[in-house]
Each structure stands twice: as C-alpha cells, then as structure tokens.
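**Sequence, structure tokens**
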Amino acid sequence: MQATNFNIEAYFSRIGFRGKAAADFATLKGMMRSQLFTVPFENLDVQRGKVVSLVPEEIYAKIVDQRRGGYCYEVNGLFAMALDALGIPYRFVAARPMTYPVRRPKTHMAVVAAIDGGQWLCDLGFGSYGIREPLDISDLDGGVRQDFDTFRLSKSPEGEYLLQSLDDGSWKNLYEFNLSPQEWVDFQPANYLNSTHPDSIFVRSLMVVLQTPSGKEVLVGNRFKSVSEGRSLELTVRREEIPAFLQRKFSLR
C-alpha cells in the first residue's frame, strides 16, 4: 500500500510515535497503539453524504495533513502504508462482521503482518470493539489481555479465524476471516456499500471512537460514553452542540 505523498516522519509525528522504528515486533506494536490513541475511528464524511475515498494519497492527506480519522479501509490503509515504508510484509484480509443479528458479507478489512517468522492480526478500524495490540494468529483459544479488554482467536467450524472479546464472562463474536490475500481494489464494492447503503451503520448514525490507554471514548449519534479502567460514564450531547463536542473531545471538524 503506497501513496506518493506518504512521509514516514510526518506519519510518526501525527500519531505521536517516538520509538526507534525498525522492521520488528516492538515497532509494529508501538505503532499500532500510537495510531489507535491519536487517530479516531470516524464516519464524518459518510454522514455528510460523501463516498469515502480509497485513493491512497487522499487517505494520507485526510488523516495526516488534515488531522482527521476514518473507518477501517482508511485507518488500516494508512497503517499499511507505514508497514510498507518500514519493509514489514503484510496482507489485507476481508472479514465478516458478526456483531449484527443477521449474517453479513465480508465488508470489514484488517491487516495481517509478518514479523520474526510469525503472523499478527493488526486492526485499527473495528470501532469500539477493536483489538488494541497485534494478535498472534497461531495462538488459538487462549484469552489475551490487552489493557482492560480480553480477546481471543479461535477457528470456526468452517475453518475461518474467529475473533472474540470477553464480555461479562462470555465470549462475543466480533468477526471471522481467512488468510486469502486481498488486493486494495477488492474493497471498493464494500466501501461503496458502507458509504451509501441505507442499512449501513455508517449511514444511519454518526460514529466516533478514540481508544485511550485506559479505555475508550465513543460517540454514537448524540450519545457519548467514556470508559476508563472498566468504569463508564455516559451522557447525551444536544444536537446543536455536537460540532463543538467533536472538536473538543476528538479534535475533529
């Protein structure tokens, strides 16, 4: 994933990454956490009636130069640009979201990076349910604690990788995927569906999520929820106050 305007130093400045960058796991983990804590998952363009651009140069300009966020194709696409610049091998994978009451197509996109002979699931674009660090895809059926959340990978009866999170003592399905590599162009139909279909959650409601070291801050519609160390605070934002709230809480215009 390359963009002619990509600059690794500007990207590091945008996400606040100050470690020594190399093609190793420490960089992979540090870069993922830094981006999660600074670049919000958001659908403002969709809410404004726009089809999200998948042009790599426009994704870079939006997130780095304009200091915006984006949804899965954008934030994971930007992350892939950095992996490419560092020489870290990766593949895009198509994932089927399983947080809905009915079966959905594979409209989600994630990244599997190859480091030190292993493969690691990296995903910066699954909203409030997302993993917070790379997950070793060979480590199956064991819960992995990440800050105040617990995740695990297992295999579905059909042989797909299944990502789950621990919720009130029970495992909740998040999405399933396999390792069939996808080209960037393969996500254009799903992106158009997510940007325009009336049943798309991104069309139906404003959605902004920013992960924090202690939890997450989430705005869906006019409902805001702040989670820190397992404790949550909720409030309603008046419609006319949302633009100012977006700027104050998420640095978004």
In short: The CA atoms of residues 35 and 199 lie 29 Å apart. The chain has a mean pLDDT of 95. The two ends are 27 Å apart (CA to CA). DSSP finds eight helices and 13 strands in the chain.
